[in-house]
Write a structure and sequence with these properties.
The protein has about 110 residues and is mostly helical. The chain is about 65% helix and about 10% strand. It has a two-stranded antiparallel ribbon with strand order 1-2. Helix 1 packs across helix 5 and helix 4 runs antiparallel to helix 5. The radius of gyration is 14 Å and the shape is globular. The model has no long low-confidence stretch (mean pLDDT about 75).
């Protein structure tokens, strides 16, 4: 389930997001932030890794403590909502949204 959600993020951003450890995941997040330097995409990318980790953690807790089955589609919808909402504030973009599976950022 977690691999599927990460794959969707890779598809939406045209990035390869395969991680073998938490350390690799954080390094990838830092790399996203530095690749675009000051671009809006780079600023928005700062929300990707924390949003994914947080929402996967919440889904795991709901499965363990509440017996709820986590579905990758639900986690993905929450990730996109988080990125779109916080992307506006992080990058001062007028609009951040998912269009045909790709993240779209408008100035």
């Amino acid at each position: 389930m977690v691999r599927q959600v990460w794959q969707w993020l890779g598809d939406a951003t045209n990035l390869i997001v395969v991680f073998g450890s938490m350390e690799e995941m954080w390094k990838a997040g830092r790399l996203l932030c530095t690749q675009g330097n000051r671009s809006k995409a780079a600023k928005i990318s700062q929300t990707f890794v924390p949003a994914m980790i947080w929402l996967i953690w919440l889904a795991k807790n709901q499965a363990i403590f509440r017996g709820q089955v986590p579905y990758p589609e639900n986690i993905w919808e929450e990730v996109i909502a988080c990125i779109c909402n916080w992307g506006h504030f992080c990058a001062l973009a007028s609009s951040v949204r998912l269009v045909r599976g790709k993240l779209e950022i408008q100035e």
